[in-house]
Specification:
The structure is a homodimer. The first copy, chain A, has about 130 residues and is mainly β. Chain A has a domain at about 5-95: Ubiquitin-like (UB roll) (Roll). Helices cover about 10% and strands about 35% of the residues of chain A. Chain A is built from two helices and eight strands; from the N terminus they run E-E-H-E-E-E-E-E-E-H. A four-stranded mixed sheet of chain A has the order 2-1-6-5, with helices on one face. In chain A, strands 3-4 form a two-stranded antiparallel ribbon. The first copy, chain A, has a two-stranded antiparallel sheet with strand order 7-8. The interface between A and B is large, with 43 and 43 residues. Strand 7 (about 105-110) of chain A pairs antiparallel with strand 5 of chain B.
């Protein structure tokens, strides 16, 4: 248990019951991904210390790494001034992105449109076997 | 101009026309805030190199720092793998948070609930005069 469940009462979930959650590598500061949490996902994260999100596409809890093994151990859970966004400091096992990249934010806007600024470290078909 | 407008065509705005945008201090890695952008806000950010968001509470463009002077010069604009989240690397003038703190994420979840882990650097009444 990394935090008391009473924290949940302070969270301003949106009308859809979700809150945006940023995952950041705790020691390097790299922003890894942005995902969503409902109350159950945040409660599970606080209880287990492993990042659990809510998958909007699958409409169910998404225990990060459940199929890929690329889990996130949670070091700190922070809320912002309006309590309507979450920042998770995590220790990412392997890669955060389903494309096999460390971070999901690998597309940079420039004069010629979007450019890929990071290559996959793992082939996606090796992540999901 | 830091990026071509064609980038806008690649962005997956939500049904409300908005996309979540994370602002991160470019050199220290500190996550400063999470806000929202519509197409006009992102277009202006790409054109001017100064962060412009969409304020959901005021229902209008929010040129960061327009009343506080705490502007964000944009160093890089990145999209994630699904093109439905934005990461801005910025150089923050002063403080990002309306409470006078450097980062909005100053509430940390722990065994006793939420604890403040950062103090204001500026009094809010000095920010909005």
């Amino acid at each position: 248990m990394i935090a008391d469940r009473r924290v949940l009462d302070r969270v301003a979930f949106g009308p859809d019951g979700l809150i945006a959650a940023i995952a950041q590598q705790h020691d390097t500061g790299e922003v890894l991904m942005l995902a969503w949490m409902n109350a159950d996902a945040l409660a599970e994260t606080l209880a287990t210390g492993q990042a659990c999100y809510f998958s909007r596409s699958r409409n169910r809890l998404w225990r990060k790494g459940e199929s890929s093994g690329q889990t996130q151990r949670v070091v700190s859970v922070r809320l912002d001034c309006d309590q309507d966004a979450v920042l998770l400091l995590v220790d990412q096992t392997g890669v955060a992105c389903h494309t096999g990249r460390r971070s999901c934010f690998y597309l940079e806007a420039g004069p010629d449109g979007l450019a890929e600024i990071a290559a996959p470290l793992v082939a996606p078909d090796q992540l999901y076997r």
